[in-house]
Amino acid sequence: MTAPHPPVSTGDIVRVRVRALASSGAGVADLPDGRVAFVPRTAPGDVVEVRVGRMRKRWGEATLLRLIEPAPERVEPLCSLFDRCGGCALQHLDDAAQASWKRRFVADAMQRIGGIDVEVPPVEASPLRIRYRNRLTFTMRRLDGGRIVAGFHALDDPDRIVDVHTECILPEPAVLDAWSRLRAALRAAPGALPPAKELRLTLRATDGGVLLLVRGGDQAWDPTGLLARVDVLRAVWHLPDGHRRAALVAGEPLEDTWGGQRVPVGGRAFVQVNRAAADEVVAHVLASVGDGGAAVDAYCGVGVYGRALARQGWRVTGIEWDAEACAAAGHDAPEGFHVVEGPVEVHLPELLPADLVVLNPPRTGLEESVPEALGHRPPARVVYVSCDPATLARDARRLQPGFRLASLRCFDLFPQTAHVESVAVFVPEG
Hints:
Blueprint: E1 13-21, E2 27-30, E3 36-39, E4 47-55, E5 59-69, H1 95-112, E6 135-142, E7 148-153, E8 161-163, H2 173-188, E9 198-206, E10 209-215, H3 224-229, E11 233-239, E12 247-251, E13 254-258, E14 261-265, H4 275-287, E15 294-298, H5 304-311, E16 315-320, H6 323-330, E17 337-341, H7 344-351, E18 356-359, H8 369-376, E19 382-386, H9 389-399, E20 403-411, E21 421-428
């Protein structure tokens, strides 16, 4: 009988074989003492040397030190910052392996959290694997001596910022160009942004140009010089600390085309980051809704689904808590579509029953009372668009026993990352 291995401690260096991926994208390996370690930047099948980090009763964290034997699916990362930056957790896997594991993430979540055994079809591939993001957020931090660091949070220390120039493989060319020019402008004129120690800078490409949203700071500042220095910027928005609404402080309001419709796009408006793949999601949703009637577009954002449904003859009420998004959704809206401002959990019950409810919540999923309201006065069909398999599975469980899962499709809106978009269709039982 083999003697038990002594407990592994923080700082120990051990050799392990990675056997799976966690939904975060980290590799899963068994330590010599039987506990599980999560090792970022490893692939199933890798044999690696790791340094053990924080340990808990049954699992812990580890850092990759040396790749001894690579897995067959491992590829060379395209980004030179891959080993330091906290993004792009799957960049070291080939496309087929990424899609396979994302499919498994969804199936595992539905079974483990939702209690639903479902055959998940292959994940629909994104038309673009790199240079697909129309929006990217950078953190800018002012250091002692007037230096500025700007980029993404570090893999090994989320409090540290990895300086990013043009290495990132995700942004659309227009976003990357704007970021390069913005960095140059900040080096030449550090005071071109609010005088805060830390700011979050979001660049968004529209078909009318690039806008910049500056989050943070509470002092007045003059942004006009920024537009002059970064001539590809068409608008600058500011969301000061402690405020809920962003203000346009320089340039002109911009519009963008989504679902064949022109919609205003402000600083905080939510639209998908992957244009081409998002069009496929919208097409699938519209093909899943059935015949016309009364519909609710919950968490409607700028109204991509609701406006498209109205153009197909549905009578649609959108629900959106963000005032800026409500204004964009209602701007030049088609007949048959209107928006109410406020939380979905407040307004949805008064709009039921309906023939259709489209749910497109944030990553946290539905507020607990929303499935209860749907169960109390069930619509003929619920189409749930989700960016998180875990919260989708939780909400699918909450919709039981009044609804059954009729179909599930997944789309790779976020290549190189562990995220996956799902569209689930629910219909009443019986």
